Amino acid sequence: MERLNSYLGKHLWAQIVLTLLVASAVSMLLFPGRSFGTVLVRTAVVSAGGIAIMIAMRRKEERAAGGSADRLVTLERKLRKGDVPTDPRERRAMRDLVEQRLHRTRHRVTAQVFLVVLFCAVVTAVAAASGPRQTVGVAVFSGVFLSWLVFYGNRQHRLLRTMRDALASETPGASDRSH
User: What is the top-level taxon of the source organism (predicted)?
Assistant: First the structure.
């Protein structure tokens, strides 16, 4: 799993392709009847804005990590494992990355509540406009997706706060003091 995380971390295009394929497959399961190619193109067009945002966020994170995808993957691995960097430059890069992510997730609870309301509205709209198969499918997908989103969002936020606290509690002289 670590090799897959590293590969996807280094190759953003692979994340995009994998996401589009999975989203298209889910769409095909919920709303059969169209060809996979048609669904894939429609999914790519609808996802274009999200892909652009993902690329922009990735570039900012790479800059915070020191300018390369490899350094970002290294910091990601340390963040997931809870390993606090000892090298002063790496500590500064980790601190910048953690602060950037904490800043970006400052409204996460509001966003989670909004997504729950939004998905409930989508399930209601599908129930009104489609059959029971689509309604049950969208409801199950929504429940699983929202549960995963809240669980991993809270887990990531906890990891970020723990790393920020570990970086702040450094001993004097052990790392850079210019930051």
Answer: Bacteria
